[in-house]
């Protein structure tokens, strides 16, 4: 904070008086000095910024189920603060396609009751939560690497790294 001492001048009416037979004009103001102390807030980043600790991040890559014209599979990328979001929300926030045709119109909105938000974790499964009971029920006969995106928490608030996700593994064109 910086402090300034300013002097303000406040006009004071003098009134009019008769003095030695002279007349003082009442419209004349005689300024009177008054000291004013003003405190200014400064926003110096060096002095005021609290010590910010960066939250760990998870990098994500999403591989599409079908190759493009050049034969390579499309890859979308996103980042998320560790432990703050579900995989489903990260995909929807980044406009990364999650659902197949049926799931697009019939999904449960992330409630864990439709089983249409299936993804495969190709790499980085240790950065995610364990399969939930809902997933065990819906994915009983599916590969261990398959998850329901609405049940999958990305990161645990402390870890960081990279997760590679296969979108729509049930429709993957190998
Ligand atoms: S969105 Fe319905 S189970 Fe995931």
UniProtKB/TrEMBL annotation:
**GO-annotated cellular components:** mitochondrion
Tell me the cofactors it needs. [2Fe-2S] cluster
Q: Give the organism, scientific name.
A: Herrania umbratica
Metal-binding among keywords: yes
By which gene is this protein encoded? LOC110411601
Q: Which family does it belong to?
A: Belongs to the adrenodoxin/putidaredoxin family.
InterPro entries xrefs: 2Fe-2S_ferredoxin-like_sf (IPR036010), 2Fe-2S_ferredoxin-type (IPR001041), Adrenodoxin-like (IPR001055), Beta-grasp_dom_sf (IPR012675)
Q: Name one Pfam family in it.
A: Fer2
Q: What GO terms in the biological process aspect are recorded for it?
A: P450-containing electron transport chain
Q: Under the GO molecular function aspect, what terms does this record hold?
A: 2 iron, 2 sulfur cluster binding; electron transfer activity; metal ion binding
Q: What is this protein called?
A: Photosynthetic NDH subunit of subcomplex B 3, chloroplastic
Instruction: Kindly give the SUPFAM superfamilies that the UniProt entry links to this protein.
Output: 2Fe-2S ferredoxin-like
Give start and end of each 2Fe-2S ferredoxin-type domain.
Answer: 106-154
Tell me which domain of life the UniProt entry assigns to the organism this sequence originates from.
Answer: Eukaryota
UniProt keyword annotations, A-Z: 2Fe-2S, Iron, Iron-sulfur, Metal-binding
